[in-house]
Design goal:
14-stranded mixed beta sheet, alpha/beta, UDP N-Acetylglucosamine Acyltransferase, domain 1
């Protein structure tokens, strides 16, 4: 994993903030149009898709291996204060799928969590391993989606448990995004050469 100096290349901005420079694994794909700011660490084979914003100016953001954040999504964190001296960093585990136009803010997404298209995960919320937040749903602060649970609605509520076939489908999605990210990275690199 390498720390990247201020970079504006192919419409992507990687910017230090408050003495913290984003650290991005060399195998990660960062699409043109992304903005990555501050105390961010991005793991191996991660893909951050077109026009995403990952802003770690008031706390940290960590993204585990093979996770993907799809086009137009925003990832932020929450500041420490008297009531919560640690604030709410955003911790995204490994093999996490975050759909297009999602808002992920000061929360924990454990390994293999799924955030549907256009969903919102608010400060202090958690999606445990193999948990799923449906498209368009809003997981309010302090709520936890348990393992293998599907939650939907605004505010999100438990709907049902996920079966093995659904979990297998999510893992297929992870593999697809890793490979697709590598293909896009090669195309972007060839275009900028």
């Amino acid at each position: 994993m390498t720390a990247r100096a201020p970079l504006q290349h192919n419409g992507t901005t990687i910017l230090p903030y408050a003495g913290k420079t984003p650290k991005i694994h060399d195998s990660a794909f960062i699409a043109p149009g992304c903005r990555i700011i501050g105390d961010v660490e991005i793991g191996a084979d991660v893909s951050i898709w077109y026009n995403c914003v990952i802003r770690a100016d008031v706390n940290k953001v960590r993204i585990g291996a093979r996770s993907n954040i799809q086009d137009g999504s925003v990832v932020h964190c929450d500041s420490p204060d008297e009531a919560n001296p640690d604030g709410f960093p955003t911790i995204i585990g490994e093999d996490v799928l975050i759909g297009h136009m999602a808002m992920v803010h000061g929360c924990v997404l454990q390994d293999r969590a799924f955030v549907g298209l256009g969903s919102i995960v608010m400060s202090g919320a958690t999606i445990e391993s193999d948990g799923m937040l449906a498209a368009g749903a809003m997981l309010t602060g302090g709520k936890t989606i348990g393992p293998r649970q599907l939650w939907a609605g605004r505010p999100a509520k438990y709907m049902r448990d996920l079966n093995d076939q659904q979990l297998s489908h999510m893992q297929t999605g992870i593999a697809h995004y890793v490979e697709n990210g590598h293909e896009h990275k090669r195309a972007v690199d060839a275009h900028s050469a």
